[in-house]
Amino acid sequence: MNRPRILKTGQPLTFSQYFDLPFALEDILAEFDCRLVRQINRNRKHIELVNESARREALIAPILFEVADLTDSRIYSHFK
Q1: CA–CA separation, 70 vs 22, rounded Å?
Q2: How is the chain classified by DSSP, letter by letter?
Q3: Is the model more confident about 15 or about 14?
Q4: List of residues 6+ apart from 70 with CB closer than 8 A
Q5: 16 phi and psi, to 5 degrees?
Q6: Residues near 68 by Cβ (< 8 Å), separated by ≥ 6?
Q7: From its phi and psi, is residue 74 left (phi > 0), alpha (psi between -120 and 50) or beta?
Q8: What confidence score (pLDDT) does residue 42 get?
Q9: 74: which residues sit within 8 A by CB, 6+ positions away?
Q10: How far apart are CA 55 and CA 76, in angstroms?
Q11: Distances (CA, A) of 2 to 34, 35, 37, 66
Q12: Which tens digits make up the pLDDT trace of 30-73?
């Protein structure tokens, strides 16, 4: 069964804007039908995402690693 889309096609959003949406994270992730979404959902079972910083760091990491793997690049990360 097709479900109604919750994101507007062609409307760009920044990463943090996804967390301002009035939808459950699972519903937002369901909008993106790809292997990475399944990996993010699997990882979410093991971490409590209690604030925006935690959500951002936990959810963006698999994306960065996937891009690094696809482009055979190295990630340099630091915090101030």
Answers
A1: 32
A2: ------SPTT----HHHHTTSSS-HHHHHHTS-SHHHHHHHHHHTT----SHHHHHHHHHHHHHHHHHHHHT--------
A3: 14
A4: none
A5: -70, -25
A6: 74, 75
A7: beta
A8: 77
A9: 68
A10: 20
A11: 17, 19, 18, 28
A12: 776 666 677 777 777 777 777 877 777 777 787 778 778 878 88
Residue pair 68/77 in contact (Cβ under 8 Å)? The answer is no
Taking the domains of the chain in order of start, what are their residue ranges?
15-71
Model confidence at 19: pLDDT above 70: yes
> CB under 8 Å to 69, separation ≥6 — which residues?
none
Binned at pLDDT 50, 70 and 90, residue 79 comes out as low
Kindly tell me if the per-residue pLDDT of 80 is higher than 80: no
Residues 47, 26 contacting (CB under 8 angstroms): no
